[in-house]
Structure formats: C-alpha cells, structure tokens
Amino acid sequence: MILYEGMFLLDPALASDMEAAEAELTRILTRAGAELVGKRSWDERKLAYPIKKFRRGLYILTYFKADPEKITGLERDVQLSDTVLRVLVLNRETMTDEAVQKSLAADPPKMAPRREERDERGDRGDRGDRGGRGGRGERGDRRDRAEGSDDGDRQSGDASNDESKRDGDAPVTASAGADSDD
Q1: What residues form DSSP beta bridges with 45?
Q2: Separation CA 113–CA 153 (nearest Å)
Q3: Range(s) of the domain holding residue 17
Q4: In the chain, how many domains are there?
Q5: In this structure, what CATH number is given to the domain that contains residue 20?
Q6: What residues pair up with 61 in beta bridges, in sequence order?
Q7: What is the pLDDT along the chain (182 residues), one digit of tens a residue?
Q8: Do 57 and 45 meet the contact criterion of CB atoms below 8 Å apart?
C-alpha cells in the first residue's frame, strides 16, 4: 500500500454537519480499500468559479494508504457522489509519518484578499513613459498606407496580369518582343 494525500471538496451544506461529511469520506475510502492515516477539516471557502452550481465548498485534507489500482475507483466514486464536488489525489509515498502529522497540524493557507482590498493599478502608470515610436515616425492613417509606396507595384502587377489574359495565350514578356528583330 502506498501513502496518498487527498484534498476533498465537499458540498458547503456539510460544513454545519461534519459527521455527515466524515461519513461520506469514510464510505468512499472504504469502498476503495484505503486505510485512513489522518484527516483535517479546513474551512468553507469561496470557489474561484462555480462547481456543480456551488459557489462555496468545504475542504478536507486526508492522508490514506491504498493500492494504486484502487485510486481510479475512488475518483469514480467521487464523480458519482452528490456531496463530494472534487478530489485531488497525490502520491506521497516518500513522505514520513512526522511530515504527515506536521502537515495535518499546520494551519490552512490564507485566502487571497478580496478585490476591494487589493492595490488598484488604475491606469498602469507604474510602467513609466515608454516614449513614442523610437524615431520611426508616425504610422499615419491606414488608407494612406494602403495607397503609399507599394502602389506602383500593384499597378505593374495588374498590368502584367491583364496582358497575360488575352485570348488564353501564354503571357507576353518584354524580352520576347525584343528578340523578334533578329
């Protein structure tokens, strides 16, 4: 059996009924033939995006030992469960028992600050003056650029195309007309 770390995200309604949440986790782990090493209930938090129409979720960190073949069955049971929204299972076979106990005793990570509490960047004035076009001049209007220096290339290309479309003949080149004097 290998040691795994599982982060379970549960229905927020179970935050008030921790016994039901623990019973659901125990049911899923016993179906997978896993041996629970330790668990810690984190708090109910706002989710970054809705999951199964829930905007909040209850996080529970678990450590358990299981056969590697049984993990896919555990993940399938989570998908079929109505109360477990998501699970993340990580292989922790190199983790010692002391590290597991230290992880379970540690406080959950702090939540990110709300938008109102973050520093507002405003108009991005912190980037400084980037200057103009670096001596390249102004770009001008798009219509001016379209009618600009490459206009002559278009006319010569169009003229050669017009000549090449005469009665299905091969395109006439300037060198072919000059060779006819010989």
Answers
A1: 57
A2: 59
A3: 2-105
A4: 1
A5: 3.30.70.60
A6: 7, 40
A7: 899 999 999 998 888 888 988 899 999 999 999 999 988 888 888 988 998 889 999 999 999 999 999 999 999 999 998 899 999 999 998 888 888 888 888 877 777 666 665 555 555 555 555 555 566 667 667 776 666 655 555 554 555 555 545 555 555 555 555 555 54
A8: yes
Token pair in block for residue 11? 């229905």
What pTM value is reported for the model?
A: 0.59
- Does the residue 72 lie in any domain? yes
Residue 111: both structure tokens together:
């939540």
Axis crossing angle, helix 71-80 with helix 18-31, rounded to the nearest 10: 140
> For the residues of 93-116, what is the DSSP string, one character each?
TT--HHHHHHHHHSPPPPPPPPGG
Residue closest to 8 by CA, chosen among 21, 20, 18: 21
- Strand, coil or helix: 83: coil
Instruction: Please report the DSSP string for 128-154 in residue order.
Output: ----SSTTS-----HHHHHTSTTHHHH
The reply to whether 42 falls in a domain is yes
Instruction: Answer whether residue 136 is part of any domain.
Output: no
**In this structure, is residue 97 part of a structural domain?**
yes
